[in-house]
Amino acid sequence: MSIPTVMVGKKPLSRYILAYLFALQQNGSVEVKARGRAIPKAIGAVQVLREGLVRGLEVESVDIGTERLQGKDGREIRVSTISIRLSLPGKKAKGSKRSASPAQGPPS
Amino acid sequence: MSIPTVMVGKKPLSRYILAYLFALQQNGSVEVKARGRAIPKAIGAVQVLREGLVRGLEVESVDIGTERLQGKDGREIRVSTISIRLSLPGKKAKGSKRSASPAQGPPS
Questions:
Q1: Which residue in chain B has the smallest CA separation from A102?
Q2: Best interface-test mutation with B: which of A32, A41, A43 has the largest number of B CBs within 10 A?
Q3: ipTM > 0.90 (yes/no)
Q4: pTM for the whole thing?
Q5: B66-88, pLDDT tens digit by residue?
Q6: Higher-confidence residue: B57 or B71?
Q7: Contact status, residue A60 vs residue A78, Cβ threshold 8 Å
Q8: Following DSSP, what letter does each residue of A36-59 receive, concatenated?
Q9: d(Cα A103, Cα A105) in Å, to the nearest integer?
Q10: With an 8 Å Cβ cutoff, is B66 touching chain A?
Q11: Which residues contact B88 (CB under 8 A, 6 or more apart)?
């Protein structure tokens, strides 16, 4: 099962909150990605869900990175990226990049 | 041993790269914090170190959050935050918030 991805851009915050919610309801997990100035918005939308809308929402992993893009004048631009993996409680995605611990027993 | 913290703000990127480096050399680990628009810069400086200056630099944990600040007009503003914990290879800080696995044996 592949995890749906939401790329956060220039739309209003509420759009992304809804997109995360929709993906979580469909699949139990979602991967949120953002670049550069959209990163604070991606985090903000995650926090709105965590702080009220979705009880027990799990932040499975947060990965940071860099992407190299071509600027308008042909020069290379480096842009910071973030990738946040969310899942509903008890619906941890398989193949998660960073598992908290090896499975040594059933979840209580 | 407490971990030194670097708060990323409005200074140029290079300042923060140097600040991370200095703390890493002194303590073996550093906690990088940023709010709102400074978040992409904090990530960018980490990536510059990871991609060349510090071989094997470990990103121990990345935590996201929200802070509530008082705006100029007295209204509450919510700001996204990030906290990135870095350590030199083999110098993982004790008391790390997110340990990869419980200590069940000596590090090889």
A1: B101
A2: A43
A3: no
A4: 0.79
A5: 999 888 888 999 999 999 999 99
A6: B57
A7: no
A8: GGGHHHHHHHHHHIIIIISTT-EE
A9: 6
A10: yes
A11: B24, B28, B29, B54, B56, B57, B58
